[in-house]
Amino acid sequence: MWWALAAVLGAGVVRTGLQAPDGGMDNAIVIKAARTWLEGGSPYDDPHFLYLPSAVLAAVPEVLLPSWLLRYAAPALVTGALVAGWVCALRLYGLGLRSRYAALGLLALALGFAPFGHLIVLANWTVVAAAALPAALLLAHRGRWTAAGAVIGAAIAVKPLLVPVLLLFLFARRWRALAAGVLVPAAASGLAALAMPDPAGFFTRTLPFLFKGDDNFVRLYEASPAAVLPRLGVPQGAASLLALACAAAGVWCAWRRWGRGDAGNGGWGKASPARLGESAVMVMLAAFLVSRPSYDHYLLVVVPLLLAGAGQEGAPARMAGFWVAMVPQVPGFGWPFLETPYGTRRAFKDAFTLCVLAVTVGMRCVRRDRVPLPRARTLEVAEPQGERAF
Question: Cα–Cα–Cα angle for 186, 162, 343, nearest 5°?
Fold first, then answer.
């Protein structure tokens, strides 16, 4: 199994390297921004650069690499980060790294979950969040909350995808962890902005672009209801309000899940793996429901965590909704009326997965665990020898 897994992951890296001279389309956007900065320009001249100023400095080492090395190094680093995230998710739930489930689970993601391959081909920096979230939850489970906040903050400094996870520190009343999650990206971005010709470019250009969401290219791949419903004829205002209401409901579900604790361990006490994982996943899904843009590879931030927790009693991965949500993401599976030559209807399948997954995890969050009651002792009556009671 491990040899098969190595062959699949290695083939994905080589295939991407042969196709993408810059290591991936999204990676090329970040490299272009860093190269523009090194030449004295503003990275935010490109409206598709949706990152904080600190991400520009993080991309500088890639600019210095020769192109023949970069085209293989970028997908290799993305693959390595995905593997690291899976390892942290396994350790969070106490699963052995040499177990069959460790190999088969990652093999299932690589072969049976289309966003896995999409992320490697694009080399999008979403992979930082996919690796950082399970690592931070593992630290929090071990009681190292401040370190967990620093990990989340470092990931936000590269790409602000994990900002909603800061709510988890608020739920847990871990103020030092919350401060670390806020101050690390703020300090990194503030210092980086001082070196930019347009220090406020993220606020004056990127944020308005994200709130408007009217880019024709981006709209084709956005999976949030706020982007998909207008394509079906729903007014934009109504779609945005519905998405916002769904996101608010998701945050409420996450809060309920955290406050509920676990069976036999109620209230606001110990942070068990299921409590951490399900609360964090629900917060992220709530954000994906309303965020613009919201792509299919964002699902890699939450799906590995759900899959790693499948051994827990009552886990979302044991519910039918989880597997129904995964059906549109099986590579090669075609849906009637949604398959077009240029993939312009891909967002409808991704929206289906996102919404069904959010409902499934939300149902798990608000459902109470059954607390096992001790059995009452009964008197045993001796039977006459040779007879049986029925």
Answer: 125
